[in-house]
Amino acid sequence: MKLMETAVEKWSGAIQEVTLGAGADAGGTRTSTIKVGGAAALPFMDFEGVTPNAPVVAMEVWDCEPTDWPAPLREALGDVVKDPAEWARTCVEEYGADAICLKLANTHPDEGNTSPQEAAAVVKAVLAATSVPLIIWGCENDEKDNDVMPVCSQAAAGERCLLGAVTEDNYKTLVAACQADGHSLIGLSPIDINIAKQVNILVSEMGFPLDRMVMYQTTGALGYGIEYTYSIQERGRLAALGADKMMALPVICMVGQEAWRAKEAKATAEEQPTWGNADTRGVYWELATAATLLQAGSDIMVMRHPDAVRALKGVVGNLMK
Amino acid sequence: MKTYTATFLPENKTVTAVKGKSLLEAAAVAGIRINSICAGDGVCGKCRVLVKSGKVTAKPNMFLTRREIQRGMALACQTYVAGDVIVEVPLESRSGAAPILAPEDALRYGRESEWIDDEARFRRQPLSRKLFVELPPPTLDDALCDQERLFRELRKHQDIPVMQMGLTILKQLPAVLRDSDWKITVLLGRRGDTLEVVDIEAGDTTGSHFGLAVDLGTTTLVAQLVDLCNGATVSTQAKYNSQAACGEDVIARMMCANDPARREELKQMVVDDINDLLNALLLDSGAKAHDVTYVMCAGNTVMTHLLLGLDPANIRRDPYIPSVSEPPVIRASEIGLGINPRGLLAVLPCIASYVGGDVVAGVFFSGMASSDDVSLLIDMGTNGEVVLGNREWQVCCSASAGPSFEGGGITCGMRATNGAVERMDLESGGRVTRCDVVGGGKPLGLCGSGLIDLVGELQRVGCIDRKGRFVHNACGDRLRKDETGALEFVLFSTDETVLGREITLSEADIRNLIHSKGSIYMACECLLTYVDMTFSDLAHIYVAGGFGSYLEVPKAIRLGLLPDVDHERFQFIGNASLQGARMALLSQDALAFIREKIGASMTYLDLSSSPQYMNEYSSCLFLPHTDLERFPSVTQASAPALATTG
Lengths: 321, 646
Description:
By secondary structure, chain A is an alpha/beta fold. Chain A has helices at residues 71-77, 84-93, 116-129, 142-155, 172-181, 193-204, 226-241, 255-259, 263-266, 278-297, 306-320; strands at residues 18-20, 34-36, 56-62, 99-103, 134-137, 162-166, 184-188, 213-216, 252-254, 300-303. Chain A binds chain B through residues 146, 168-169, 172-173, 175-176, 179, 192, 194-195, 197-198, 201-202, 205-207, 244, 246, and chain B through 465-467, 469, 471-472, 616, 618-619, 621-622, 626-628, 638, 641-642, 644-646.
């Protein structure tokens, strides 16, 4: 005889399901497409409701060699970073990345200032080298992105890529491009639940469908504001499950980018002899950040280090069992 | 040294000016007062004038655009005479200390509500009262002294426990009694529980007896001459607060008042302003200053301090403590008010540093503190205040809305005086289909209600998005870049306006308005959350402030300034501060009620320490609100999807 009923939270809403990548049937060339979102319960609380899709582990690839990445990270990736297509292929084939996040860092006016056409060529090369869904991220210079992203969007037309990022101050150009070329897009907000929602409303009021949007609420690494990120993502998730449709979008986290900025990840053994093995310290930092944010409700984890990717895939697998 | 002439329009006053004298100095010689907040340092940009003809030299400045300079616009303090010149001083550049407002403007600011409040709730028994008495002359059998004789007679008329008479009156008493054949008029004034014989006059003068109710606004002062015999309002006058020259908001005034000499100067400015208003009222009504015996002022805590010459310094320092919340009744002449020299001055109590007598007056006047129903009072001024409650309790907070409702901080903003656009409708493309201008004629600028209409309409027709950003292709050629590269929307072109200056709106203007409306709405939400209620629990929402009366409810809701509830629940009560002061002037019971029932039962909620406020403020910085569901009537009738190119 049961003495007590288990109290189960009943949710009235669910996260919007978003499909990344288009196969031949949908007019694209991807052989693997991914669904993200769809959860009708808090993360991994399978007794509360369904979580149809596991969090996705994507890997970050740049359009130029990232010279300022810490040594353990560069050594783990090797020479492939000199060629974006090769780098992307290695991530998928050797490290098991579910998707590639191509960052167009070299288009920034202060960096290579490459042209929209050059950027589009990189996009095409990466698409050709891989068959997984592609995330394309601009250089975060509004004016340049507004030049580059529409061209890249067109180059990848039909592939249902995920393009980012739009902000409340600069969204119209990218929304129009994604609308025309059938892509999805990322809405960026600076750790502010209200602004996240405002971006979503602004974009959807241009007639852009909610089932093609993902939120980036900004990621804070372990020790560098992760509690803010956690709390904002969790609040967003609670609002979404409480039937706030404008908040019910999958969430992307830029884990690698933030974790490898932490001095705990970057410091060499000479600089910090008491901090343990410098080769694994950064990997753990990246993994700990990712594992924490999974619990807050995250759907796409963009990682950098192959070991962190493998370990995170293990964590996700265990949690989804 | 060469000497030229400078002529100022529209006065057509000509003065001589040596070469190199600034237009600001020349104007001062001509007796024309030009706005100059920075006192000629060239940093405030308020002293714009139009050089019609003649040669001038000017220092470069960042306030005028190339187009404006080509049209002859100049900053008076940075422009120097280099030939015989003719200069027009536009309305907007005239100093606040300039003439009393036009009568229609006075009415605007002193506007009483059309909704009839039950004034009979409080017995009409003014704080100051004239009584005609006929004393029996003394005899050997009835040998009371003159003073006791008068007191005995007064007690026959009303039960007065404590009576007082000063030496000044005592000195006059024997002669006045005997010269008037023992028939005199006694002026009685109330100070706390004591009734004072304020003045005595020979014969019966009870027919002419007046009081003055004053709304002591940060920006605008309004005074009403009230006939204390019958309670009628004789005349109303309004005037800009001369202290504006020392800062537009109370914080700036407090900083200014740090210096004791400046504090005295500030006090003198506001006293002079009240005296100006008094003189205008007397002129208008034919009453005599001697017959005005009581002044009742309602003002925010800072203004109250400045009027009395008190140091407001601690109001802005943590933990924000005023010197006094219930100032004593004093002789009006003590601070230099020009009424009957023995007349009294009372000030309505201030609850907290940022909730003053003006709010208390508003709560009282709205009647919310006498009702079982819970209502909300929103006072929309520079320092907005919100009060929630009923007869048993009230909670209040201040919401610093900023000056945008009064046209401040807006490129083409102005107060609601002649030439201000107060209402407007737009159609797609941002074309104006209706435009009401105060006083008729061509527009000069935008006042608060016009600005609210404009932004709401721009959003409705799709020219701006919900964040207040322009949508390029929806605005067409009305949108352009200014010299700094920022976008501006041209509402009226040069030939459509009074001064030949375009009326434009920038994204920064829209942002200012959104911040103002957000802080008001958020303050309402915070109070409601604090007592665990929602807008739907409210019986009435009273909107006070001269500006409030001109709001159109649907447009204020579209903007997210007012909550989306049944329109019938809104009641515009006009200048509640002034009307509350008037009621307190006319009824001792009303004043007692204000002190005991409102002053003592109100709780002040400090929003700056409320986590909810900080957390959710950004949700209000959207049109109408981030949670669109809170504004169903607005979002259901939403515009079609915006066009899709940047």
